[in-house]
């Protein structure tokens, strides 16, 4: 079995211009993965399947992952001029102050593919792809044309995460019903409350209902998109 | 369920794509009957629906509809600790809870690097093979039941299953919801009396298979109904991710017990039966032969089982927080490759918990196998896939 570095260089030798990046895995499992650029993913997948050394003819598992937007709070040292009075004389002095800044790191949706070879009996080789963000640009190329086992699994990810797999022959919801709106596996999904089914609407229930409605209405809570 | 376009088997919007079955043109006036088989149909083993379009008796289109038993197992597991998901894995494929436990424990052990003591590995193999045996026996029983042989074969299978479930109950306290494995070992040790009883049960199993095989394997009606029905070609089976007895019935030599040699499987002497035709009869026969191999493994494991601890002494049940990272662990469950993919962010709960369900992925080729066959054969082909809805819908 080749290492990820060898597979990366094999891909780059066969497909110049294909962007491949190694994602190290710090756990003891040692299952490192390759991140593909969505534009070249289909060509890389075809190469991995048809290359006689790798012969990754079996796609075992497709996983969706949600990486929400992160607000990162960091302390930055800033040097700025300030006017100070020293011994009765006003002077401009350079002063270093610590400032707390908040930075928004945009999130993304990720699809992970676990490949094995039935012919060579090796694996896993792990591929990953990321969308640009979580709301507007959620398209990834479907690998169903290469491995049919992705058919239901990509449908499931479309259903539960909202990744749109372009080129999928039959992209419909798999587990939720067709009229369902949201994507329940996303980290910011708000579960429906059962207050509507309470037999008597007493104060506590009404309060809970109000809170729930408020949570849904808040745009940053992200329920419903 | 809404009547939306997505759940109808009408011909017009059936998508075309790579590696899909060739369309069958309706004969005569081209008038088709659309039938929803399920979700409450005796042959669907639970709540599962097949929307079929029929030309007379012939199946022209088939669309599986999932989700009736969906409870978002993966989301629930992300909200609770690692160990708290262990009893919930019992409820995935509730015919084989032990192997579900095993796959999950294996994935976590890959993530943390915990070692499993020798005796626990043997107990896992013994229970895992007993599970495989009773799964295959009842799966064959159901298949024959659906063929119209009402009662007898299924009751023969359930008689043996009952003996094995008694063993599970004696060891773990529960017949089905066993919650037996832990990360780095097993929950309770087997007493010498339990091992003796297991040896006695295992010694009786070959006689059952002989009887079962004699009853069924050369039965004329069974052969007429199953041979050449629901053929699955090897290259399509591999490409569509089909695993387990279904893959091997198509002649592909891929058994994860041999390929990965997880646990201590490389110590045992057993063979991997392979089919020639990939039809329903081969799938039935492969299960029968795998039961014989399971007995071989059981006999060896029961002979060699050592004494010693059953838990990794360094394993801790409280404050269990794997280091950040990810791992995919898989086993050869009775229905195919059962895998768990875990991502840890260093917290007490998994950041991502994914089940690779063999039952769901084996159904990818259901339409391919059913096209052109009669409605009555659909029931058989579906039965030969051997699914459990608790795992399909999760």
- The total of beta strands of chain B comes to 8
Catalogue the unreliable spans of chain A.
221-225
Q: How would you characterize the largest beta sheet of chain A? A: 5 strands, mixed
For the termini of chain A, the CA-CA separation is 43 Å
CA-CA gap between termini of chain B: 18 Å
**Oligomerization:** heterodimer
Q: Which structural class fits the helix and strand makeup of chain B? A: alpha+beta
Percent helix among the residues of chain B? 40-55%
Helix count, DSSP H or I runs of 4 or more residues of chain B = 15
Strands of chain A, total number: 9
Low-confidence stretches of chain B: 1-18
Percent strand of chain B equals 5-15%
Beta-strand residue fraction of chain A:
25-35%
Please provide a written account of the structure.
The complex is a heterodimer of chains A (225) and B (394). Chain A is α/β, with parallel strands linked by helices and 225 residues long. Chain A has four helices and nine strands, in the order H-E-E-H-E-E-E-E-E-E-H-E-H. Chain A has helices spanning 4-14, 41-50, 150-160, 203-217, and strands spanning 20-23, 33-36, 58-67, 70-86, 89-105, 108-117, 122-130, 139-141, 164-166. Chain A has a five-stranded mixed beta sheet with strand order 1-2-7-6-3, covered by helices on one side. A two-stranded antiparallel ribbon of chain A has the order 4-5. In chain A, helix 3 links the parallel strand 8 and strand 9. Chain A is flat and about 85 Å long. Mean pLDDT of chain A is 84; it is low at 221-225. Chain B is α+β, with helices and mostly antiparallel strands. Chain B is 44% helix and 12% strand. Chain B has helices at residues 73-78, 86-89, 97-112, 118-147, 152-172, 192-216, 220-226, 234-239, 245-249, 256-259, 280-304, 358-362, 366-370, 375-385, 389-392; strands at residues 33-37, 49-55, 58-65, 181-182, 185-186, 325-333, 336-344, 352-356. Chain B has a three-stranded antiparallel beta sheet. In chain B, strand 4 (181-182) and strand 5 form a beta hairpin. Chains A and B meet through strand 3 and helix 3 of A and helix 3, helix 8, strand 6, strand 7 and strand 8 of B.
């Amino acid at each position: 079995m080749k290492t990820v570095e060898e597979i990366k260089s094999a891909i780059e030798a066969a497909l110049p211009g294909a962007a491949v990046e190694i994602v190290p895995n710090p756990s003891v499992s040692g299952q490192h993965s390759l991140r593909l650029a969505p534009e070249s993913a289909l060509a890389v997948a075809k190469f991995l399947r048809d290359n006689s050394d790798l012969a990754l003819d079996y796609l075992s598992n497709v996983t969706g992952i949600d990486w929400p937007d992160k607000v990162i709070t960091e302390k930055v040292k800033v040097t700025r001029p300030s006017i100070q009075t020293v011994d009765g004389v006003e002077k401009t002095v350079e002063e270093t102050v610590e400032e707390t800044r908040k930075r928004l790191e945009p999130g993304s949706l990720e699809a992970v593919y676990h490949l094995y070879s039935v012919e060579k009996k090796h694996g896993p080789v792990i591929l990953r792809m990321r969308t640009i963000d979580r709301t507007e640009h959620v398209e990834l190329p479907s690998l169903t044309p290469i491995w049919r086992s992705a058919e239901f699994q990509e449908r499931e990810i479309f259903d539960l995460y909202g990744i749109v797999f372009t080129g999928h022959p039959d992209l419909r919801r798999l587990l939720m019903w067709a009229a369902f709106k949201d994507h329940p596996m996303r980290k910011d999904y708000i579960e429906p409350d059962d207050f509507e089914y309470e037999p008597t609407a007493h104060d506590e229930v009404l309060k809970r209902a109000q809170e729930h409605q408020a949570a849904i209405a808040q745009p940053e809570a992200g329920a419903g998109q | 369920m809404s009547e939306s376009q997505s759940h109808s088997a009408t011909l017009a919007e059936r998508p075309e794509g790579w590696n899909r079955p060739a369309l069958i043109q309706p004969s005569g006036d081209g008038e088709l009957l659309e039938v929803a088989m399920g979700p409450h149909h005796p042959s669907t083993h639970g709540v599962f629906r097949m929307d079929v379009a029929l030309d007379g008796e012939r199946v022209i289109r088939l669309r599986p509809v999932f989700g009736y038993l969906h409870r978002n197992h993966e989301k629930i597991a992300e909200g609770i600790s690692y160990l708290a998901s262990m009893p919930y894995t019992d409820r995935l494929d509730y015919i084989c809870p032990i192997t579900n436990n095993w796959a999950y424990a294996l994935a976590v052990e890959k993530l943390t690097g915990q070692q499993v003591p020798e005796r626990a590995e043997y107990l896992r193999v013994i229970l895992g093979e007993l599970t495989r045996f009773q799964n295959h026996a009842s799966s064959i029983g159901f298949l024959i039941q659906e063929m119209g042989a009402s009662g007898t074969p299924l009751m023969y299978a359930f008689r043996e299953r009952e003996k094995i479930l008694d063993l599970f109950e004696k060891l773990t306290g529960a017949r089905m919801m066993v919650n037996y494995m832990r990360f780095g070992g097993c929950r309770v040790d087997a007493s010498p009396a339990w091992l003796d009883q297991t040896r006695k049960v295992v010694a009786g199993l070959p006689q059952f298979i002989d009887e079962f095989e004699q009853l069924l394997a050369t039965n004329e009606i069974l052969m007429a109904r199953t041979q050449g029905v629901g053929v699955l070609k090897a290259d399509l089976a591999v490409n569509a991710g089909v695993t387990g007895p279904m893959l091997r019935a198509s002649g592909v030599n891929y058994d994860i017990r041999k390929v990965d040699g997880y646990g201590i499987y490389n110590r045992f002497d057993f063979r991997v039966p392979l089919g020639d035709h990939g039809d329903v009869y081969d799938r039935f026969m492969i299960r029968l032969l795998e039961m014989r191999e399971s007995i071989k493994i059981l006999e060896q494991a029961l002979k060699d089982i050592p004494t010693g601890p059953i838990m990794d002494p360094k394993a801790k049940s409280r404050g269990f927080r794997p280091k950040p990272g990810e791992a995919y662990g898989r086993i050869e469950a009775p229905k195919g490759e059962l895998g768990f993919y875990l991502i840890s962010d260093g917290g007490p709960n998994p950041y991502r918990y994914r089940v690779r369900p063999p039952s769901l992925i084996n159904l990818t080729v259901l339409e391919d196998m059913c096209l052109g066959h009669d409605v009555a054969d659909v029931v058989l082909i579906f039965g030969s896939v051997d699914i459990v809805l608790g795992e399909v819908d999760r």
